[in-house]
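ok so i was messing around last nite and threw this chain in just to see what happens. nothing serious, just curious
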Amino acid sequence: MLDPANTTTSEPPVGALSHGVALVREDLSRVERELAEMLGSSLPVIGEIGGYIVGAGGKRLRPLLTLLAADAAGLTSPARLTVAAVGELIHTATLLHDDVVDGSDLRRGRPAARYRFGNGLAVLAGDYCLARSIQAIARTGQLSSIRGLAEAVTAMAEGEIAQLSHAGDIALDRATYLRIIDGKTAALLSWCAGVGGLVGAQAHAPLASFGRELGFAFQIADDILDYAADPQLSGKPAAQDLREGKITLPLILACERSPRLRGRLGELLHRRQPLAESLIRPILEEVVHGGGLTDARVIASTHARSAIEHLSHLPPSPARDALAGLALEAATRCS
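result:
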């Protein structure tokens, strides 16, 4: 049994992501082929746009999560490959849409799809990815997978809308922030970890709960990186969320420590104008040095430990250990 109380999130297993990939390497290759087929169309531009963003790399966290979870649950059905590919394709759709909504020019260190192809084509290509995902899951004939995906995508849309509607809202609290990321990030990871509902009920509950907690840890770590990562490595400027008026956990926690910071931010964001670099830099430094990142890391680690606790309901296996490693790495990642 895994003991989260004796698991530290400060030192994740070396190469946890690489280790997980090694366990399911052949299946990941099959998933890549399925992704290519799903992006196929009689309109070449669709494959060009989809291939541009899918081919940009990325961790392939969602397919990896699905395949390791299937292995941990003893599921060998070919439908698990479809679920894995759909998880990545849904994620691709959100990236295409997010870059348009946020006005981003960079994605993974290179021009965003919207910058290269235009906003209209980027949005419609994202719609195509969503449509193909639904089509692929429908073809499995698994009602639980179809229903689960519909619920996850609905939650994702609600989470994104909630985040945008709260842009510039310095009164945003922890509870509301967690509800937002539960929808925008954790819902899909929960569906992927539950292998789209294809695993038995005894394995599905702990795996889906693992995926949800992993989603919290992953998104909080992502929001920490927005303040802490080297722009040369991340491919985007520091505090990009703040520039877009997004209030994330590090900023919420820093404001809890410093009412003065909350007041100053409220005045700046009330103007509803892009913040100049001269205003961004002092806020960034106060979040970094005022305890916002430290407190957020503790919360991310708590979610990672909770994720691992859910895995203790599964029989021991290399795949289960790899999932635990992913949770640890999600909370402590630096890129």
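not much to say yet. The chain has one domain: 4-332.
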